[in-house]
Amino acid sequence: MSNDDTNIDEHGQKRDRRGEWRPERPVGFMPLFDWPTTPKIVAKWFFGVPGFLVPWYGVYLLITVIAYLFFTPEMARMQVLSAGWALEILLRNVVMVGLFTGALHLWLYRLRGQGRKRKYNANWMATNDKRFLFRDQVYDNVFWSMVGVLVWSLFEVGLWWGYANNALPFSGLAANPVWFVLWMLLMPFWRNFHFYWIHRLIHWPPLYRTVHYLHHKNVNVGPWSGMAMHPVEHVIYFSCMLIHLIVPSHPLHMMFNGVTTALGPAVSHSGFDELVFGDAAAIRKEKLMHYLHHRYHTVNFGESAVPLDKWFGSFHDGTPEADARFRAARTRP
Ligand SMILES: [Zn+2]
Ligand SMILES: [Zn+2]
């Protein structure tokens, strides 16, 4: 069944002429900044299943703790910069991204485990397309993601070297348990705040043309597109880790910051509104939010933890009304 503007796909989802599907509920922000809000709403968002902590925050934290306990060189070795332990960190990070992003890609795009159910774009990843390295979107995206892992690992090695030599502001769990937990919980908000501003910076035309264009070659995104960036963008993107030069932290904070910065994009670029293993409503909103950024370029520079897009007028909530508003703004002389 179809008419001029829409057709119904194999999952009964309405797709427009360009094959786009949208969830019915608009994009929103985490309820901390939504108004009106109540303690009950905030508590439900925070502790609910799915919610802020479960599943994604918890998954990233678990991965960080395992990497910290079992796959990080001893502190004494890291006092002296050397290729040996630096390569161990690089290898651990390559494996981590390979398994995490690879698993999402395998399930959603290779096995097509949920078909096109809740997939925003009707198409799969591009092949035989000369815009991409190796004429293949996935190979291109994996290549640039791995360059990103190298940049992330360099930041991590430098910071570990600083901790091992007591050269960085340190705050331990035993001495400052409240700050330890609070800083851990604030991390997504710091990352969102940082990302919004660096993202606006790289949309400055000279930087967009030379650097950020590479990420935006991906209009139809998949898990590997998340970290497919120009190396200059990787440096700017992972510079959120430099906060640990200033803010008293435990190395676990630094690692958690790096791990979420490296793995988060695989989820936010998955191209699907909802993954079979259950997603937090907030994360679902975030995926559509960033998908729309790839679709329209000039909207949704940030993510859903901090509503900077709303405050600065670049927010697109995914509704037809917002579509019309931004289209009108673009055609205005
Ligand atoms: Zn993106
Ligand atoms: Zn962008």
Automatic annotation (TrEMBL):
Domain Fatty acid hydroxylase: 185-314
Location of the protein in the cell: Membrane
GO cellular component, one term: membrane
Residue span of region Disordered: 1-22
Record-level Gene Ontology MF annotations: iron ion binding; oxidoreductase activity
InterPro entries the UniProt entry points to: Fatty_acid_hydroxylase (IPR006694), Sterol_Desaturase_Related (IPR050307)
Segments crossing the lipid bilayer: 45-70, 90-109, 141-161, 167-190
Basic and acidic residues composition bias: residue spans: 8-22
Principal location listed in the UniProt entry: membrane
Magnesium as UniProt keyword: no
Transmembrane helix keyword on record: yes
Residues annotated as signal peptide: none
Gene Ontology terms describing biological process: lipid biosynthetic process
Keywords annotated in UniProt: Membrane, Transmembrane, Transmembrane helix
PANTHER family: STEROL DESATURASE (PTHR11863)
Protein name in UniProt: Sterol desaturase/sphingolipid hydroxylase (Fatty acid hydroxylase superfamily)
Species: Litoreibacter halocynthiae
